Structures are given as structure tokens and as C-alpha cells.
Amino acid sequence: MTGLLVSLLLVGVIAVILRWQRPAWYWMTFGVTFAALRVAVRYTSVMDACGLTVPPARWRLSLARMANRPVPESRAPRILRLRPTRTGLVLRLKLRPGQDAFDVASATDRLRHSFGMYGVTSRELHSGVVELRMTGYDVLRRVQMPAKTDHAPMRIPVALREDGSVHYRDYRAVPHGLTLGATESGKSVYQRNLVAGLASHDVALVGIDCKQGVELFPLARRFSALADNPDTALELLETLVQHMGDVYQLIRAAQRITVDVPDADIAADIWDLPADMRPTPVVVLVDEVAELALFATKDEEKRRDRIVTALVRLAQLGRAAGIYLEICGQRFGSELGKGITMLRAQLTGRTAHRVNDESSANMAFGDIAPDAVLAAIQIPTDVPGIAVSGDSTGGWTRIRAPHTSLRQAVNICNRHADRTPDVPALAAFRPAVAPLPSAAAPLAKTAPATA
Ligand SMILES: Nc1ncnc2c1ncn2[C@@H]1O[C@H](COP(=O)(O)OP(=O)(O)O)[C@@H](O)[C@H]1O
Ligand SMILES: [Mg+2]
């Protein structure tokens, strides 16, 4: 008897410690069962309390009256499925006549504490069917990406969403992206995650890092071209514009449309070309874009104009040629001069880390999702890496990338260094890298003994 009591006590203590220290483990051991039971037992009363029930149909009322039976109760949406996940529960509901998805969306906060969950979001799957995604704990506090993620070309699992699902950066669906955020808000870590994710894909990476290259040069082994100052950046971008022209020539040559070519085989972008002819896609990563757009002298102004023109051309025409832009900066508005808002309009994927003022958030979302602006300003300062990500459909979600250190990213890039494609056009910008440390002399020996 005492043995049983002691082991029960032990399990209880373990549960409390896990819940406090390792919420993810707690969820997978105890939390998920308790939560599923709680939802199943309380479902009808919670829905009633949250105003998500409808009165019984007229024919039921008449039937009850005729049969002299008690008046039937109001009905809650029917549960189609209750599925436990790694981070929470997914509840799929069939709405009753007269209800709409907006009713459920506006009740998510009430549902959240009624069911004792950490977060609840809802979305409409198709007419009349709504999915409630509930999380059992704060999944963004310590981001753990699931071991298994979807694998598709140019689709990178880059962060975790607040509803526990994986946030992908899909270059083929959203070719160009803009990442904004105050300094120390987590932009470079986000970009580093992208590089680490892209490293194992068949893609040429091009980096422009005018912060003397501190962020991207350590990853040089996986880069086909790098620039660390505005002059090189200009040459690099103009070379890319030329490369884009060459790719279009190639696509033109491959088209040769005749009547007997099936519609599906007519190539209009590189992904329609046969795999052996397809040029390598290029992702251009720009860190601290303002460095490219600011100028002090007349010469620098000319250079700036040419840089912005090249970027605008790449953004307008790059997608079909497989050239994708990923731009990071603290602000990206008209104060950076002419051409900037035009460039911004082409950058569909928007991500805003913590920003200091509303106007910075407006640069990311003002023109696509006004309520995301508020969410971006509310990001607290003590959790770097939290961001609001939206796209041109007006939808947005809170995300956080895993904390990949520079060392981890360097290791991943070195491991995939042999995947770095040789793009002849970019050969002049290929960073010179020493052989891997295993072959070279240890760093400590080459450094002077006295500092
Ligand atoms: N996703 C994240 N998870 C945890 N810590 C983060 C995350 N992103 C950033 N940080 C922390 O914030 C610091 C600043 O991030 P960084 O990306 O360099 O900011 P920025 O480039 O916006 O100035 C990093 O050194 C890191 O310690
Ligand atoms: Mg940075």
C-alpha cells in the first residue's frame, strides 16, 4: 500500500517538475491525456457558455411537443475529429446552420481558458468546417522543430508558428521576402536559419552583407558569391541581372512551341524545363539593406541608384528565372530614397521582428495586413526571435525561429560545401576560402603568440 502511495507521489512530483521545467515533455507524457479528457467532458457546456450553440430545430421542438417530451437542448457544433499532436490538440468541427467561422474565431480567447489550453486559433477548412488548433504550452518559448518536416524543393522549414505547426519559407510560392526588425531583434538568426535550411538544397546562395561580412562570411563555403561592400554589391547585382537575361534566353530556346507540344510542357519558367537543362536557382540574401541605399557623396548616389535599379529588376523579373530575393533591414520605407517603395511592393513574403515604432511595422504590413502592424509592435523586447509573418493574402501568424548559433550554421554549411554549385557568371565573386580545418594547420598555431 505504502509502495503504491510512494510511486503515485513520485509520478505527481515528476509531472509537476516537467510541467514547470520541460513543458514539451510534460505535454507528451501527461498533458495530452488530461487535455483530451477535459475537452471531451466539458465540450458541450463550454460551447454553450461561449455562445457557440444554436437553438434546436423547429421540427425537433414540434416533435417534442407532440410526444410530450422535455424541450430538446441547444446544440453545439459537431466534433468531426479530435487529434492529439506534439504540441497540442486539433479539433475539427462541423458548424450548425446559422453559425459561421467568424463566431468561432471571435470566441477563441474564451475557449482558450475554458479548456485550460495555452493558445487557441481557428481557421475555416471549407464551408461549414472549422479547425481549432490548440496548444498545451508556450511553444515559442523554447523552439523545438519537429524531427520530420515536409521536404520539397525550395521549401524551407524555417520557424515554428504559435499554433505549433511548422512555418515554411516556400520560394516557389512566395519568391521574394522582406524581413524587418529593430537591431538585436533576431533578423540575422532568422536569415541564418534560412541559409542552414537552404544548404542541403540544389541552390546557389548569393550573399550581400555590408556589415563587413560578419554574418554571412563565416558561412562562405556554401556561398557561390559574396559581397561585403556596396561597390562589390553593385557589380554582383548587375552580373545577376545579366545572368537573369541569359536564363530567359535559355528558356526561350527550350520553348520551341509547335502544335504537337502538350500545353503542360511549354516552359515559361525554369521549373518547366527538363531537369538536365534547368539552371540552378539562386537565392540572394541581403543583410542590412539600408547600407546599400544610403549615400553621402554624388558618386555614392549614382552607385545607390544603380543598386536599387538592379534590385528592382531582379524582383520584377527574377521569379521565372529562379532568382529569389531575401532582404533584411531595420526599416525599409520611402526615406531610403526613390525606388524603395517600388521594390517593397515586389517583396511578397513579409516578416517583422520586434520594431520600435508603428511606422517601421507599417513598412512591413501597412499595405497588406493592418492588424499585423499591432501584433508586430506588441512583441516584447525580452524574447528575441519572435516575429509576425504575413503574406499578401492578409493572413498573419506569430513565429519564432530556432536559436541556431553561428557555429551550428557554419557546421551545416561546411557539411554541404560540396553542393555549392559553380555558376560561371558568378565565378568572380566566389569567396576565397581556406581548406577545411582538418586539412589546414590549427588556427591557434597560426595566430601570433603574444597579443
Ligand atoms: N530565434 C531566436 N531564439 C532565441 N534567441 C534569439 C533568436 N533570434 C535571436 N536571438 C538572440 O538575439 C540576439 C540578436 O539576434 P540577431 O539576429 O543578431 O539580431 P539582429 O540581426 O536583428 O540585430 C542573438 O544573439 C540571439 O542571442
Ligand atoms: Mg543583424
UniProtKB/TrEMBL annotation:
Keyword ATP-binding: yes
Keyword tRNA-binding attributed: no
Binding site for ATP: G181, A182, T183, E184, S185, G186, K187, S188
InterPro entries: FtsK/SpoIIIE/SftA (IPR050206), FtsK_dom (IPR002543), P-loop_NTPase (IPR027417)
Domain of life: Bacteria
Segments forming domain FtsK: 163-362
One protein family per Pfam: FtsK_SpoIIIE
Keyword line: ATP-binding, Nucleotide-binding
GO molecular function: ATP binding; DNA binding
SUPFAM superfamilies: P-loop containing nucleoside triphosphate hydrolases
PANTHER family, sorted: DNA TRANSLOCASE FTSK, SPORULATION PROTEIN RELATED
Protein name, UniProt field: S-DNA-T family DNA segregation ATPase FtsK/SpoIIIE
Organism from which the protein derives: Streptomyces candidus
Upper taxonomic lineage: Bacteria, Bacillati, Actinomycetota, Actinomycetes, Kitasatosporales
